[in-house]
């Protein structure tokens, strides 16, 4: 489900028009979140840490309206719910794109993630298709090998794109806490620093539960 945004009355109309004319309308930031409690919670629940923080990420994204905006045929729409299109790894160190539907229930979400991970590992190539190409997703990647402080993405400027890209890196210990870097890249015509700040705050709250 999605709703069309009336550009004639939208308070971001000029921002949208201005940044949509850029060759690179995306901007990004890297920040840390405290994953100490989330890591322990995953152990207590017997689920993977990846499952937990991906679920927390989607929970937070769905709380921020601007991260549910997408540009479709020159119009802005707002989706009621956003899912995940993550990169999922294989034993041969390649990856495939997946589609994991969001569910508020962690166990239900986990079953979908488990099934999609198995499908990716049983396949080859990128797995491009209608599901992984859906607009009502975030593009998500995890790099547990690196605790990064900056991140860029491969982008085709000729391909219209307004999907947020969220990446996380390796945990690092600091003053008894487990910190995790999170990179967020969004279309500037749809979201500013304020909205990314709302997302990071909501993500931290979800991780602390």
From TrEMBL:
<dbReference type="InterPro" id="IPR023213">
    <property type="entry name" value="CAT-like_dom_sf"/>
</dbReference>
<protein>
    <submittedName>
        <fullName>Chloramphenicol acetyltransferase</fullName>
    </submittedName>
</protein>
<dbReference type="InterPro" id="IPR001707">
    <property type="entry name" value="Cmp_AcTrfase"/>
</dbReference>
<dbReference type="Pfam" id="PF00302">
    <property type="entry name" value="CAT"/>
</dbReference>
């Amino acid at each position: 489900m999605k709703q069309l945004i009336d550009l004639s009355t939208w308070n971001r109309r000029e921002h949208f028009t201005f940044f949509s004319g850029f060759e690179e309308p995306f901007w990004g930031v890297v920040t840390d979140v405290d994953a100490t409690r989330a890591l322990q919670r995953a152990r207590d629940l017997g689920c993977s840490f990846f499952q937990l923080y991906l679920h927390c990420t989607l929970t937070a994204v769905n709380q921020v309206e601007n991260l549910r905006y997408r540009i479709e045929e020159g119009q802005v729409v707002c989706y009621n719910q956003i899912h995940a299109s993550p990169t999922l790894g294989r034993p041969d160190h390649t990856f495939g794109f997946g589609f994991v539907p969001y569910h508020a229930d962690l166990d239900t979400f986990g079953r979908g993630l488990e099934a999609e991970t198995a499908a990716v590992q049983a396949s080859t190539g990128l797995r491009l298709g209608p599901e992984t190409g859906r607009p009502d997703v975030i593009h998500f990647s995890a790099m547990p090998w690196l605790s990064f402080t900056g991140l860029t993405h491969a982008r085709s400027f000729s391909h219209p794109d307004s999907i947020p890209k969220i990446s996380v890196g390796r945990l690092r210990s600091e003053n008894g806490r487990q910190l995790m870097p999170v990179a967020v890249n969004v279309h500037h015509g749809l979201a500013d620093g304020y909205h990314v700040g709302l997302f990071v705050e909501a993500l931290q709250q979800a991780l602390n539960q």
